[in-house]
C-alpha cells in the first residue's frame, strides 16, 4: 500500500510522534488487535477515514487509542479538541478517525510452517543464513531492539532463511504477512518489498519493537508476534503460544552465550 500524500510522516525511532504508529484496528476480526467500538452510523472524515465512537476507559490515552484503532494521534487529538496535553477523562466519548486504507489486507499473525519458496524474488541470489543474521541484527539495533531477540524470532520463524513462504502467505526471514508489511510501510514512509532481505528485516523488527513497547514485556511481545497483540491483551498467552515463546527465549539465551541458535 502506498502512503497517502495527505498523511503525516512518522518521525520517531520506534513510535511515530503523531500516532505511536498506525496499528490495525481492522486486525480485530482476526484477533491481531482489539476490536473497534461501533462506528458512528458510517460517518467518514474524507474518503480514507471512518469515524468510530469510543468511551474512554481507565488507563487509555490518545496515543494508545491511536495504536488500537489504526488512527493518527494528531488527527484524534484535533478532532476531539483535546489540547496540547491530549488529556482524556474516563467515561468521555470521543471520535476516532480510523485510517481505512491502512487496515486493508491484514489477517491473523499465526501461521503454519515456513516451507514454501516465494513465487518470485527480486534478489538475484537468495541471501544465505550468515547474511540474514547480519542484516536482521543490524536492523534491530537501528530500531532500538535487542538484536539477539530479533535473531531468535527470525530463527524460530524461518531458520534465518529468506526464500520461504508459509502456508498463510507469510514471507521471508521474519515471516511477515503482506498486510503487516503494508502496516509497516506507514512507519517506513515508502513501499516495502517483503521479498527483499532489507525490507523484510525492517518490517519484522519494527513490528517486534512496537509490540515490545506496547506490552512492556519481552515475553508478551514475543507472544503477540505469534498470536496478535489484541489477543494477548484480552486473553494472555494462548496455550499454543507458550511453546513458541519458550523456544524464542531459549534461542536468545543460546545466542547471548555465543552458542548456535539450536
Automatic annotation (TrEMBL):
Coiled coil: none annotated. InterPro entries: LysM, LysM_dom_sf, Lysozyme-like_dom_sf, Transglycosylase_SLT_dom_1. It comes from Nocardioides luti. Residues 102-126 are annotated as: Disordered. It holds the Pfam family SLT. Keywords: Signal. Gene3D superfamilies: 1.10.530.10, LysM domain. SMART domains: LysM. Residues 1-39 form the signal peptide. Residues 115-125 have a biased composition (Pro residues). This is Transglycosylase SLT domain-containing protein. Residues 52-96 form the LysM domain.
